[in-house]
């Protein structure tokens, strides 16, 4: 069954957190499984569905469900569909289904113009007070990214020896900062 396989897969992903999977990846798989669970319950009044029942129509109906009932935008829907497709491929690779129901299904990701923040907007973010220390740290990392052009993932990978390089490109950090 689909949700049974999804649950088993997610348990494996959870075991790999900190090894080669992130907690965020696990959470995305879990949300996808929850959305599928709700969809199957609403559409078919079932608690799970046989893998052999997954076809192009099921996939298209799930996409419509995400867009309408869950009110997901096109790129969020595409991400859910990508996670769902990985489970279907897992089933196919294990011989539990013969054909890939995603074979003629195109997952479309829309190009998004993210735009840029003005100096005034960055200053406003810099001066924003948050209720928790964690959110203030997130703000500080974001502002740091704005000035250094370093992405969050790259910042997390920075090591002690690289701090001088970062300081040289960011005039807002003092040389004595540790």
What would you note in describing this structure?
It is a single chain. The protein has 178 residues and is mainly α. It has two domains: 92 residues; 51 residues, no CATH class. It contains eight helices and no strands. This is Phage integrase SAM-like domain-containing protein. InterPro entries: DNA_brk_join_enz, Integrase_recombinase_N, SAM-like_dom. One of its GO terms (molecular function) is DNA binding. Keywords: DNA-binding.
What's this model, at a glance?
The protein has 178 residues and is mainly α.
H/E topology pattern: HHHHHHHH
Radius of gyration: 22 Å
How many H/I helices? 8
Span of the ends, CA to CA: 52 Å
Strand content: under 5%
Percent of residues in helices = 55-70%
Tally of structural domains: 2
Shape: elongated
Runs in which pLDDT lies below 50 for 5 or more consecutive residues are 163-171, 174-178
Helix and strand composition category? mainly alpha
The count of β-strands is 0
GO molecular function, one term: DNA binding
Protein name: Phage integrase SAM-like domain-containing protein
InterPro entries: DNA_brk_join_enz, Integrase_recombinase_N, SAM-like_dom
Keywords: DNA-binding
């Amino acid at each position: 069954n689909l949700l049974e396989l999804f649950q088993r897969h997610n348990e494996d992903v959870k075991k790999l957190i900190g090894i080669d999977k992130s907690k965020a990846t696990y959470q995305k798989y879990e949300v996808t499984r929850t959305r599928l669970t709700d969809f199957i319950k609403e559409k078919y009044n079932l608690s799970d569905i046989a893998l052999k029942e997954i076809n192009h129509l099921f996939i298209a109906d799930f996409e419509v469900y995400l867009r309408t009932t869950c009110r997901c935008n096109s790129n969020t829907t595409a991400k859910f569909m990508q996670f769902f497709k990985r489970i279907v491929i897992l089933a196919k690779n294990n011989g539990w289904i013969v054909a890939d129901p995603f074979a003629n299904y195109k997952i479309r990701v829309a190009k998004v113009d993210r735009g840029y923040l003005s100096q005034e907007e960055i200053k406003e973010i810099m001066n924003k007070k948050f209720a928790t220390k964690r959110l203030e740290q997130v703000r500080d990392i974001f502002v740091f990214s704005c000035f250094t052009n370093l992405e969050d993932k790259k910042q997390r990978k920075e090591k002690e020896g690289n701090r001088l390089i970062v300081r040289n490109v960011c005039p807002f950090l003092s040389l004595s900062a540790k």
